[in-house]
Amino acid sequence: MAGLIEQQVEAYRDYLIHERRVSSNTREAYMRDIQMFIASVADNVSMVDDIRTYHVNHYMYQLKRDGRAASSIARIAASLRSFFHFCIREGNLKLDPSYEVERPKASSKAPEILSLQDTERLLALPNESNPLGIRDRAMLETLYATGVRVSELMSLNMEDVQPKLGFLRCMSGKERVVPLGQVAAEALERYLNDARPQLLSSSSQTDGLEITEHNALFVNVRGQRMSRQGFWKMIKKYAEELELSFPITPHTLRHSFAVHMLSNGADVRAVQEMLGHAELATTQRYVEHMRKSSMKDVYTSAHPRAKKK
Q1: Residue 129 burial by CB count (10 A; 0-12/13-18/19+): exposed, middle or buried?
Q2: Of 123, 150, 224, 228, which sits 20 to 30 A from 253 (CA to CA)?
Q3: Residue-range domains of the chain with CATH
């Protein structure tokens, strides 16, 4: 990348940070998609307005030929459109070169949702006779109670949670305040009072490692901020104990939070705000999931040949 293209890519990064205020994960995904495309046309293009529709078409064809999933190609196409629209706004591009490019359709697989019973079983699995079990219970309860993303959960600091007042604050992208239920608040209080001090104390005594983030809410056995990878390993362990017909991921609890809230009459816009969705359509997919599930239940209970006798 050179010249104006490089400048526009950096300007776009600033736009994502300061105007769009997207999360760091979203920002890096956008930038990675754009930089890979720019690298593919670098031999023929030096200015943003040198990019043509055939450049984008050829790149999309390459991605498909290389076996990239339709969902990945759709995301990359969306990243490029966002970048091109920014360049148009800045006066560095007249037309969107991706406008006439066929947009790949990502499969709309319904999210896996835990039943209320399975949710209760999952939350009860951590062994609370030790600090790690208390921590795990607090993390799972907080994730299900608030519907926050795992990246947001792991980035929480001590000042971001107010268990006694019943809320937590997410600073990822646009700041938002999310209610915290009583059960999750009590699990957090126990973690803060009993488990976290033990994890910090034992790490400083046994490992001799410097604790770099005293302010991190959730810490590992070394007293360091819990990582997303660490959380994935934790939830995978508990998921294996549940023995369900589908795999559980950290996002499963976020999906379940949304559907359980909507099933109990929560306003879809309130759920949108709690989840931190920029678009209402993203939240409405949970409403569609509920509609299809309800239709299936009605059919199963009402049709005389729905079940084999």
Answers
A1: exposed
A2: 224
A3: 3-89 (1.10.150.130), 116-298 (1.10.443.10)
